[in-house]
Amino acid sequence: MLRCDMDDAAPLPAAAGLTPLQDSCTVTRVGARAHRLGRLVAAGLPVPAGLVLPFDTVAEIAEGGPVPDLGDRLGPFLAVRGSAGEKAWGGPQSVLNIGLSDETLPLLASRIGERGALEAYLRAIRSYGVRVAGLDPEEFENLYYDQMKLAHKLETSDLVEIVAASKALFEDQIEHPFPQSREAQLEGILRALASEWNAASARILREARGAPPDAGLALIVQDMVFGLGDRHSGAGSFQAVDSATGVASATGRFLPDAQGADAGRGVRTPHMITEVERLAVGQTRPSLEALEPEAYRKLTAASAKLTAALGDAFEVHFTVEAGELYVLDAEPVRRSTRASVQVAVDLAKAGVISRERAVLRIDPKALIETLHPQVDPNARRDIFGTGLPASPGAATGTICFSPEVAMTLHAQGESAILVRVETSPEDIRGMHSAAAVLTVRGGMTSHAAVIARGLGLPCVVGASDLSLNLKKGELRAKDGRVFRQGDQVTIDGTSGEAMTGAPAMLPAVPTDAFDTLMDWADEIRTLGVRANADTPADAAVARRFKVDGIGLCRTEHMFFEGDRINVMREMILAEDTAGRISALERLLPMQRADFSDLFRTMQGLPVTIRLLDPPLHEFLPHSSSEIADLAEAMDLPVSTIIARADDLREFNPMLGKRGVRLGITMPEIYDMQARAIFEAAHDAAAAAKAPVVPEIMIPLVSANREVELVKARVDKVAASVAAERGEVIEYRIGVMVETPRGALRAGDLAKHSGFLSFGTNDLTQMTYGLSRDDAGRFMRDYVNLGVFPEDPFHTLDIEGVGELLLIAARRARAENPNLTLGLCGEHGGDPSSIRFCKVAGFDYVSCSSFRVPIARLAAAQATILSREDGGE
Amino acid sequence: MLRCDMDDAAPLPAAAGLTPLQDSCTVTRVGARAHRLGRLVAAGLPVPAGLVLPFDTVAEIAEGGPVPDLGDRLGPFLAVRGSAGEKAWGGPQSVLNIGLSDETLPLLASRIGERGALEAYLRAIRSYGVRVAGLDPEEFENLYYDQMKLAHKLETSDLVEIVAASKALFEDQIEHPFPQSREAQLEGILRALASEWNAASARILREARGAPPDAGLALIVQDMVFGLGDRHSGAGSFQAVDSATGVASATGRFLPDAQGADAGRGVRTPHMITEVERLAVGQTRPSLEALEPEAYRKLTAASAKLTAALGDAFEVHFTVEAGELYVLDAEPVRRSTRASVQVAVDLAKAGVISRERAVLRIDPKALIETLHPQVDPNARRDIFGTGLPASPGAATGTICFSPEVAMTLHAQGESAILVRVETSPEDIRGMHSAAAVLTVRGGMTSHAAVIARGLGLPCVVGASDLSLNLKKGELRAKDGRVFRQGDQVTIDGTSGEAMTGAPAMLPAVPTDAFDTLMDWADEIRTLGVRANADTPADAAVARRFKVDGIGLCRTEHMFFEGDRINVMREMILAEDTAGRISALERLLPMQRADFSDLFRTMQGLPVTIRLLDPPLHEFLPHSSSEIADLAEAMDLPVSTIIARADDLREFNPMLGKRGVRLGITMPEIYDMQARAIFEAAHDAAAAAKAPVVPEIMIPLVSANREVELVKARVDKVAASVAAERGEVIEYRIGVMVETPRGALRAGDLAKHSGFLSFGTNDLTQMTYGLSRDDAGRFMRDYVNLGVFPEDPFHTLDIEGVGELLLIAARRARAENPNLTLGLCGEHGGDPSSIRFCKVAGFDYVSCSSFRVPIARLAAAQATILSREDGGE
Fold first, then answer.
1. A702 to chain B: nearest residue by CA?
2. Helix (H, G, I), strand (E, B), or coil: what is residue B610?
3. How far is CA A569 from CA A231, A414, A651, A662, in A?
4. What is chain A's Cα-based Rg?
5. Rounded CA separation A486/B26 (Å)
6. C-beta atoms of A765 and B803 within 8 A
7. What share of chain A is helix, strand, coil (3-state, %, to 5)?
8. Lower CB density within 10 Å: C or N end of chain A?
9. Alpha carbons within 13 A on the beta-carbon side of A41
């Protein structure tokens, strides 16, 4: 059941037909606006009195049911506002000034002056004519502008004439006069709004917006307060914090002699609210603070009261009638992620909300925009194109011209820069996979710009000095330089520039509020967050993001650096075990040095090192010059190199001879890696005078005997290194669970393992029978058709892969209660997947370094939610 | 616990130390021979009295424990025979003639004559000397042959001298005289045999034979009966059925004046047992039937009694002493599979055993040797090599020179002919995958010949007119013709010939007994057996094997025939949907014709048709001439063809855009197939005037929405064909469950499905993360190292894949109790996997046609065993 507010007020019962605003508690009966107004009333804000027709009442009216009798409740003048379940589902425009008639006109005139009252009467006839009787709004506008042409400023008498003309127009078209009773007007309006809601076109629209077609609408009937009138009246909005930064900063607009949406219509320039702001922008019009000090005082008090009562910063929509303040609505201030963090931290520090609440307030995924690095201002920029700085941050990567290629590159662990003329919804999935986006056309609100900001993705749009020829696969700069798929470029979404190569980057600098929030998250969370880091450089980045350790070091990435790849190739193409061992002996010191650096960087935090995983052919040379080099290095004919490389080719490399299968069939490789790990651990422990406990992870296990065989050899290497060094060190051997069989047999695997870490990338591939590299061909169709609700490589598939994780965790823990359980697929950086890991009882998740803050926050949220669900 | 015999005698208790033979019931305590002898005693056969020292007693003796006291049980002359748990684990040679001494010699002489007694004494001294005292057997032989040189035929006095010389030799070497008491001799022999069993070398030998190193040995002490002696005595063996055919045919050998293994030693030519056999072989020596009619009568009676009591045909080992018959042992007749079937059916027809028992007697896998086709005698044979006909049957396939290639070809569904110089144990896995084997060297008992017969695989060995150059990859015939990997040849293991190409074949002709057994199996089994058949020709073969239907028709195989492949390629490479649809329209009549034939052939039996499954690039041309042809046919440049083909290439085709993913993203393909199926079903039903109910199977499903989308379109096609034909036909839509996720979500999938069929080939690949095409690289190592107990692609992995099947079956049945569940991977032809399917509650298995009899028999056995386990 939905709660009455975000914090902890208890729900109130609501009567049928008409519910007083202050009792309108259940969003699912009365919609969001009525619910919100109820909370404002409860907080003691000066909200005009009102009654709510809940969803079911409106639905009955739409089907011809009776309109509830207002009786003598509320005053003579009314407004009707819609209240739908969710703002995004739409709702009718408000209808104001109900109850105006020839008879009540003098009453209103005595209250707000004759001009104001006439203006209100005009608006009443027009809106009833258009909304209820279906008249053309233009005909009413014409009456108005006909008079405007005659007189630059309308006199009261002009208004009287327009009122008469409007009534005549109405009677002429409808064949009965404009209704003169409050009740008749109200009934007409309520019926019209109910029917409008129930119309086929509205239903289709709701469906198009993702709402149920029969999503409900409530209607709020409220006493009118009038911002119209010559003096001391008007309408405006106000908020106490800055939308961009979230720091305290009173800001707003006020339009005298205006009501409802007038202030936003831009016919007249609004006044500032505060003197400070007026002076800051150099406006001569007086601020509300100067115009109406009392109303201003009440406004700031109302804002503060609201924040204290509801625990958030609100944008207050208000009307001033004859110097008196009325609050018409208040919505949480729209804000950037940075501002969200600032507001939440400030509120928690002020004791308005708890730290847990502050932590829950922030969408972890939104943090990504605060985490992007920027190009170092001192770096040389070789700019080949400029456009609009559509989404901040900078990224370096490989050019690609289609979303499919972006997805493939991403799947292969490469950073893709998606270059398009413009983007369209079909590109969204590719944008998800890209590191940055560059478009030749489009503005700040183009599709690419909007989506990129949503994704926190660096983006430059409208780089019109570039021309893109997709047929030729060429991006041509003004100076004639041509870029093709595979070229490395850097996009600076903060400056709007596209550069060649990879200029130096500076990491994102977090705000103090961000650091505070993350500290709170760390205090709260009971789920560890580690980073996937393959090299000492990666590890340094990970430390900056305050990880609890390294959850996945993919040792193969170390082999691609510098001239190591040639030694690696010699190892792979060796004719026999002796040749392989000789190459491995040369690789040993390189691996050992890497591991030493890694252990030193991580200063005693856990480091999980995965033994060699990819199929060996991934390391082989492709170009003929590389092959020739290798042939010379190995003193073998080129044809032999090619033949041996051909021998290694596989039909389905993902399902081939890789992972532990290499370790079993060529045990000398893992022997070398184990030796490098143990020697490095000895070295690092000696240097730091503190123990280093390496965690060695065996990949692609599908049978327990694989673990037994590898473990026996690793233990033997450990023993011999210990004998050589004269000291025994502690270490843990664990299993990377990434085959469905590994998950099902987790009970067996747990017997001899110190930890199990779920590699959900591969596990997802195998559970679905779906290669991530090839899924790009149809994943878009699949998600569009709803075959998969989400791309299972982005968000963990709870029903399939998730069940395997739960089975595995249960069996593993039953066998070995002290076992550490982790997850090290890309899902480790996805908040909903992290929530699942918490529920499943995992000890940690491991994700890429730049996603660590997201994971830390999501882990804290998962801990709070689990506790609230009674899960902890 | 092991039962006392194959049928149903209850186990008897056995006392410690010494157990009377007739009580020696528990194989696990007294070994196989003692157990067998106990049953012979129980059946009333004339077995010499005896006592058994069980495993634990012998083990204690080996450790220096006491030898049980025989007291006055048994007679003065004894034999000791070993009794191990399994014959294959080995055991000591028997020690006979115990109790002979200077004192007892006259007693034996009075019983069997002086010459026989002296010969027995000689043997006693020699065997005690060699077995207990460790003397060199040659020295005893020399004594014997020294005398032989002097006299062509040894006189009694010569024997007396040799006895004296032997005793002197013994005393000379051992420094004490040959022991003269029965007890001393027996204790020495029992201790020697126990120690021998316990020796390190024996333990290693047992381990090498696959036995536990401490597998037990029991020792049987029995009264001696003497086949030695001039007249009316001897030793022999007899059986009442023919080993090759199993038909009743009394046969055997008898050697007068002989004991133990003398008859098999070949020193003298043995006599036949029956007059019929003597006449048949034209022997002049009288048969036992003529020599000792009374002993012969008792022998045939004993054989018949044994068969009646134990329900099998036995080879009886006997001794005749002074005209009296003694049975020393009886083992089930060694026999061919054909003979096994004949014997079992005859026994059941005679009421000796039940039909269930007859069905259980036959190893389903062994049936394969009776099922192999032969080259049609009328076909033209282009023979390029001849060798020995090592294993019967003939097969056509593709030449390959390594076991790895054989496994790969097999995995790709191709028939491989493995050609080797000789085979060795490393080739066994490749032989499993081959359709036939050809070796250049080796004889009828070479490795290749023995293994091939065991596998029922056509095999020619020692084809020395061929020469194999592995480096060049060439097989060269005497006439200069050269064959390379990929060439098609036929091996006739019945004639010993290797032929080019594919001469016409005749199917194996089953015996009446075979047909009877299969009829019984069909009456018993409750598990359906269908065939995997892709073409009308396949379906015709399947019908001959009496299938219950077709469980898997892989429609893609139809596209490779004739000129269809070009239309298929045009469809695949079409630029747009319109082009694809135009090609599909031309494919429609071809598919329809195939399906019509299929339905006609199957005459109303269920036919499950799988919609297109493989990735489209599998259909593309590879050679440049094929590409050029296609370019011309499509009126496109070759470069375009190559570019589009490249576009379709995948990293991991197994996990790519295939199966239902094709159906979702290019729905027009499945539309065409559905139309072809429905139109064919209408045609076939009209022709047969009987309903045809096609079953349409959706491959590679991982999410229920895939089923919904395809089902909706198939239903629509069905409706429109029904409208066109003016008649509605019944059909079923089901899912091929072959991804782990499909198995986990089987409950969902069952909602809209008429059946689920488990494709365990792919399911095994995905559960293990192991491609069958690539596993050949290390599967041998993996099975040798015990990482996998069996190749999971041959025998269903119960622990992993099996658990997924059980989960899926349970969830599917819970959701939809009327659902049909089947299995259509290669495991459908594997007996232990079939047993699992029965336990899991499946309705049918589907396997290749030639394995259908195996599956029918295995299904019947599974039904019987489930019933006995209370499972049914």
1. B768
2. strand
3. 86, 22, 21, 15
4. 34
5. 75
6. no
7. 50, 15, 35
8. N
9. 18
Closest CA to A735 of A725, A727, A724, A745: A745
A691 contacts A685 by C-beta, under 8 angstroms: yes
Task: Give me the helix-helix angle, A403-411 and A772-784, nearest 10°.
Answer: 130
Scanning every residue of chain B, which has its alpha carbon at the shortest distance from the alpha carbon of A704? Answer: B787
Write the pLDDT tens digit of every residue in B821-872. Answer: 999 988 998 999 999 999 999 999 999 887 899 999 999 999 999 888 765 4
Instruction: Tell me, yes or no, if B741 comes closer than 8 A to chain A by beta carbon.
Output: yes
Token pair of B444 as six digits: 């009828």
The reply to whether A87 touches chain B by the CB within 8 Å rule is no
User: What gap in Å lies between CA A228 and CA A289, rounded to an integer?
Assistant: 19
Nearest chain A residue to B807, by CA: A744
Average pLDDT along chain B: 88
* Structural contact between residues B630 and A631, judged by C-beta atoms closer than 8 angstroms: no
Residue B484 bridge partners (DSSP): B474
Q: Which two structure tokens, joined as six digits, stand for A195?
A: 């029917």
Record: contact B800-A705, CB cut-off 8 A: no
* Residues of B with Cβ-Cβ distance to A744 under 8 angstroms: 767, 799-800, 803-804
Nearest to B665 among A768, A781, A799 (CB): A781
**Which of B655, B786, B787 is the closest to A654 by Cβ?**
B655
Q: Is B144 on the interface with A (CB under 8 A)?
A: no
The confidence score (pLDDT) of residue A151 equals 55
B806–chain A Cβ distance below 8 A for any pair: no
- Label residue B480 exposed, middle or buried (CB < 10 Å: 0-12, 13-18, 19+): exposed
Tokens of B50: 């005896």
Gap between the Cα atoms of B573 and A395, Å rounded? 38
CA of B777, closest CA in chain A: separation in Å? Answer: 7
B560 in reach of chain A (CB within 8 A): no
CA angle at B748 for the pair B742 and B752, rounded to the nearest 5°: 105
Chain A residues lying within 8 Å of B778, measured CB to CB: 657, 661, 664-665
Annotated catalytic residue A447: yes
**Tokens at residue B147, please?**
């005398």
- List CB contacts (< 8 A) between B741 and chain A: 767-769, 797, 800-801
Structure tokens at A206: 């709701």
Q: Is the distance from CB of B679 to CB of A745 less than 8 angstroms?
A: no
The residue ranges of chain A whose pLDDT is under 70 are 1-16, 24-25, 87-90, 147-152, 231, 261, 263-267, 369, 425-426, 445, 454, 456, 561-562, 870-872
Instruction: Tell me the pLDDT tens digit for each residue of B356-388.
Output: 999 999 999 888 767 777 788 778 899 999 988
Pick among B405, B412, B652 to test the A interface (most A CBs inside 10 A): B652
- Beta-carbon-side half-sphere exposure of residue B77 (alpha carbons within 13 Å): 22
Q: What is the pTM of this model?
A: 0.80
Report the Cα A115 to chain-centroid distance in Å.
49
- Asked if residues B388 and B443 have their Cβ atoms less than 8 Å apart, the reply is yes
Q: What is the DSSP string of A118-162?
A: HHHHHHHHHHHHHHTT---HHHHHHHHHHHHHH-SS--HHHHHHH
CA dihedral A630, A631, A634, A635 (to 10 degrees): -150
Look up B827 and say whether it is catalytic. Answer: no
Give the closest of A773, A777, A799 to B745, CB-based. A799
Q: B830 is written with which tokens?
A: 């594997």
Among A695, A793, A697, smallest CA distance to A736 is for A697
State the ipTM, two decimals.
0.78
Active-site residue (options: A4, A459, A824, A847): A824
Catalytic one of A35, A447, A682, A827: A447
Distance, CA of A163 to CA of B361 (rounded, Å): 107
Four-residue CA torsion sign, B348, B353, B357, B362: negative
Asked if the Cβ–Cβ distance from A655 to B657 is below 8 Å, we say: no
